[in-house]
Write a structure and sequence with these properties.
Layout: E1 2-6, E2 9-11, E3 17-24, E4 31-38, E5 45-50, E6 57-59, E7 67-72, E8 77-82, E9 91-99, H1 105-110, E10 119-120, E11 124-128
Parallel strand pairs: 2-11
Antiparallel strand pairs: 1-3, 3-8, 4-5, 4-9, 5-6, 7-8, 9-10, 9-11
Length: 130
């Protein structure tokens, strides 16, 4: 199982980025996928996730209405579209996966450090600054 996050960068406040999580070694449709972020000196935060069984999604209150998670099973890739970015969104962003048929926010409730996710990719840095 491998995951690789990409798409981070430097963006001005109010700007947009789309992160990609390329996956391999497993069937994406059978796994819950989550996006997490960690800023320096802070705990890892659950940002968004998508359930395997019904594509139900979860968003943290801090990103609701600005971020959108989507899954392209044909490309084995999960995306996180981030709009209206704020300086407080600055962090390293990670995608993670775990095989589970239930609601993905079960993982969010498990909390840091690993939220119960078995597989993690390397992070991609997002910096929001003018």
């Amino acid at each position: 199982v491998q995951l690789q996050a990409s798409g981070g960068g430097l963006v001005q406040p109010g700007g947009s980025l789309r992160l990609s999580c390329a996956t391999s070694g497993f069937t994406l449709d059978y796994y819950a996928i989550g996006w997490f972020r960690q800023a320096p000196g802070k705990e890892r935060e659950g940002v968004s996730c998508i359930s395997s069984s019904d594509d139900n999604t979860y968003y943290a209150n801090s990103v609701k209405g600005r971020f959108t998670l989507s899954r392209d099973s044909a490309k084995s890739t999960v995306y996180l579209q981030m709009n209206s970015l704020k300086p407080e969104d600055t962090a390293a962003y990670y995608c993670a996966a775990d095989r589970y048929a239930g609601p993905c926010d079960d993982y969010i409730r498990m909390g840091p450090p690993d939220y119960g996710m078995d597989y993690w990719g390397k992070g991609t840095q997002v910096t929001v600054s003018s």
